[in-house]
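Researcher: Here's the sequence for the chain we discussed earlier.
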Amino acid sequence: MRRKTSLILLALAVFFAALSPLLRWYAFPRLAKIPAHQYQDMVLEAKDATLLDYGTMRAKRVPKVSIVQTLRGNVEASEKIEKTAGRDVVVWDGLSYVQGPDGKMVSKIPERYIFDAHTQEPVHATGEMVDGDPVKRQGIEFKWPFLTEKRDYEYFDAQARITAPIHYQGTQNFRGVEVYYFEQTIPWTKVPFPKTMPVAGITPESVAKTGTTRWYSTVRKFWIEPLTGAPVYGEEIHKEELRGGTLLGGREKVTAFAGHVKMREDYIAHTVDLVKSNRTLVLLLTSYLPWGFLALGVLLLSLSLYLEARSRHPGDPAPAEATQPEPVSA
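Model: Thanks. This is the structure I predict for it:
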């Protein structure tokens, strides 16, 4: 009976020991993915900012500029692209909506971001765009890969339509969560005017006729939870200028927007809680279960060997049989 039990335990030990690396290196890369239907929004604010008054074409100080960013998963579009891409694809329809302290629109820039659900690498397909302009992204945007590494990444800047390195700057603790801090600097770059302008009758085409151009620079900062690759916090030191042309009345340049953009406090708390929850799920697949199965396999192997050794141990000697004395010959 002990021999049979030890063989069962040995089989279970081999099963759990083999399951441990399979779960980590085979199942996790296939199970960890961004859902196609995901929706998220975020509000950022630049307090005591500088904003252009298009009525007077003069920059003025304002108490606050708000930026509402939304990302909506387009399931229908992702399923259509998956048929030809041959992999799990996520399509995010995003909108960056900027409004002044009076609640009026300053700018709104839509974009469509298409990427691999598992690796977050961009997938090039019809419909990929920023503000209606077709683009071909290189590098990541919005989210880092699962199991983010301590290294530089390529990050796509939607304003300039360019990809530039975003540099790993060290590990920090952000509200109880270990995070990797990344920073990217985009130098002054000529960028297109938004298709939707804040003043009726003014279009990018009409501004272009004046010879005035739009320039942009930013320092982008992200604090990334490395297991999920999700940003828990972000900031931008954002600057925009209009330069040259008759629109400025002979002036060389004027500030269109300048401010230190930060996540609003209520969205920080919500994001941190959400990331902590998702982090536990990733740990379950990358650490808790693999190491638990490996430890269980070792334990079962030890029990199997113990029972096998017990089954081979000699028992107590059998009692000697009594023999009848032989008769003595006369």
